[in-house]
């Protein structure tokens, strides 16, 4: 996606489910459990939530995600790093 592109349609939940595997769902469930344990004090790590201001450049977004993954692997005993992102903020407009 380039900075000049605009989302004109959204994939249906049924199609989205077909695109992603059960392994993806298990990974998300696992991560949510880790976050919950940190918030409830069952896990002593720090939760770090970070990400780009807005996703409009797919290549830069994947680069950022890969760098966060390396940091997560290196510091997993201290931190749980979660990438948060916005798919072009609502104030962004498409003409």
Major sheet characteristics: 2 strands, parallel
Number of helices: 3
Uncertain spans: none
- Kindly report the spatial arrangement of strands forming the biggest sheet: 1-2
Average of pLDDT: 81
Shape: globular
Amount of beta strand: 5-15%
Number of strands: 2
Q: In terms of quaternary structure, what is this?
A: single chain
Q: Please tell me how large the radius of gyration is.
A: 16 Å
**Derived structural class:** mainly alpha
Residues in helix, %: 40-55%
Encode the helix/strand succession as letters: HHEHE
Question: Whole-Å distance between the termini?
Answer: 16 Å
Give the SSE map.
Blueprint: H1 13-19, H2 22-39, E1 46-50, H3 58-74, E2 79-83
Parallel strand pairs: 1-2
Structure report:
- The structure is a single chain.
- The protein is mainly alpha-helical.
- 44% of the residues lie in helices and 11% in strands.
- Helix 3 (58-74) links the parallel strand 1 and strand 2 (79-83).
- The longest helix has 18 residues, at 22-39.
Annotation keywords:
44% helix, globular, two-stranded parallel ribbon, 11% strand, single chain, 3 helices
In short:
The chain has 95 residues and is mainly alpha-helical. The protein is built from 3 helices and 2 strands. Strands 1-2 form a two-stranded parallel ribbon.
């Amino acid at each position: 996606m380039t900075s000049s592109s605009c989302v004109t349609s959204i994939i249906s939940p049924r199609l989205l489910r077909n695109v992603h595997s059960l392994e993806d769902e298990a990974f998300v469930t696992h991560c949510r459990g880790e976050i919950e344990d940190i918030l409830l004090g069952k896990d002593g790590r720090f939760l770090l939530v970070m990400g780009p201001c807005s996703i409009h450049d797919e290549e830069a977004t994947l680069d950022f995600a890969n760098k966060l993954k390396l940091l997560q692997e290196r510091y997993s005993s201290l931190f749980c790093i979660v990438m948060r992102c916005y798919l072009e903020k609502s104030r962004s407009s498409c003409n």
